[in-house]
Amino acid sequence: MSMDQKRVLAIHDISCIGRCSLTVALPIISAAGVECAVMPTAILSTHTGGFKGYTYRDLEEDLIPIAEHWASLGLRFDAVYTGFLGSQDQVNVILKTIDMLTDDDTMVVVDPVMGDDGRMYPVFPKTFPREMRRLCNIADVIIPNVTEAMLLLGKEAKPTLDDSIEDTLMSLGAICKGNVVLTGASDEGERTGVATYSKADGGIYKYPQSKIPGTYHGTGDVFGSILVSALMRGWTLNESSRLAANLTKRSIERAYSMDADTRYGVQFEKEIPTLIEMLDKGMLECL
Hints:
Layout: E1 7-17, H1 22-31, E2 35-46, E3 56-58, H2 60-72, E4 79-82, H3 90-101, E5 107-110, E6 115-116, E7 119-120, H4 128-136, E8 141-142, H5 146-152, H6 165-173, E9 179-183, E10 191-198, E11 203-210, H7 219-232, H8 237-257, H9 272-281
Parallel strand pairs: 1-2, 1-4, 4-5, 5-8, 8-9
Antiparallel strand pairs: 2-3, 6-7, 9-10, 10-11
Helix pairs in contact: 1-7, 2-3, 3-4, 7-8
């Protein structure tokens, strides 16, 4: 592997239709000039949000053999980026996979996909947050939304925080090794946004944005994939978070302006040229 090109392992499901998970992570990370290897945790005909009759196959039995083959090749990764897991049992499998394929220099980024809009996804048992917390324990960066933050902290799933953003960020920071990026949170009424916490210096950063009406599937995966891409290109956590927030919002605005069926995700593809330009030229302030 070239010394100047980073390699990321994305561990997510494949929802074949719906612009989420690996169908988002692979094109975004690759477009950023970062090699993206994939480990699919499950395969679905569509994602589970708003579609009925979707097919689902858990790929847990394949994950360790894949990891063992890669280990036999001496492969290592600059980052591991985890998202939707096919089942609670996969947490142990992913922990073992990460142990097999990483070293001290590997950045582990965990998107603790469990729920949204104040509810946990019905495919997961009530004990799932406890297991997801174990995965967060080894993460350098976690990127929960507000609902997932509440679940990770052992609280009732809901769309609002019990404590201030600052207190919530520090509480989340206590369950991971490094940094926290909290999405969908703001102190400013009708505004939403991103807030970050860096355990190294205790710094807290907020980036509020105006809300766009509607619910848009896959936006967390768009955000996370851009965040990981920017981190691998040497951007800071705050810079990466702001870039991801801006381009995710622009993708949502495209879908909103066209009155698109939100089940099919947002038009992130048309923001890829901007992503490439921003990363190559460092033009964040021009967004």
